[in-house]
Amino acid sequence: MEMIEAAIQFLNAYPVWARVCVLSGIVFSALVLVFAQRGPTAAQDKKATLAANKNGPIFLKIKGVKLFPDDSNAEVQVLAIVNGTTFVHPSVGGVKWMKVGPDMSQKSIELPVAQRYDIRFEMRLRNGSTFSGKGSKQLEASPVARAASQMISSITHLPYSEDYKLYDIVGETRAASVHAVVSYEISESQ
What we know:
Elements: H1 2-12, H2 16-35, H3 42-52, E1 58-67, E2 74-82, E3 85-89, E4 98-99, E5 107-111, E6 117-127, E7 144-148, E8 153-155, E9 160-170, E10 173-187
Antiparallel strand pairs: 1-5, 1-10, 2-3, 2-4, 2-6, 6-7, 6-8, 7-9, 9-10
């Protein structure tokens, strides 16, 4: 209230024509703000970006896995949960586990078109050294560990790539240090 009184006293020091110009400018500015068409918000811009990509398919490409510490005997299954749908890698030709390494196979998954992709990863790990060398006959069941994260990546702009960090899960407890990283991208190209 004091500011308004101070502004009125300030304006009273000027001639009438100057006060009319100032008040006209304030009224004009208020009218412009009320009637002007607003531009898209940042959220609307993001929706428009993915909506523009509806012309072609969208792909999730799992590029690789890195373990900390590195384990040459480890075998993994990567689960990508995208907008509530789970995709498993590997999943071709009856193969359920894959060795981790620089030449491990990549997976390209066509995703349903959406305005936003909420993605998270989980991984099952086992030590492959429990196999005998004779015809890949398993000597004993290998215990399966689980790695996950509480982070959900929300993707609204393409292309997008990330190294997603996974932590060991023991019972209901998540480890403090990173056990694995899944490298992936979402784009319009396979």
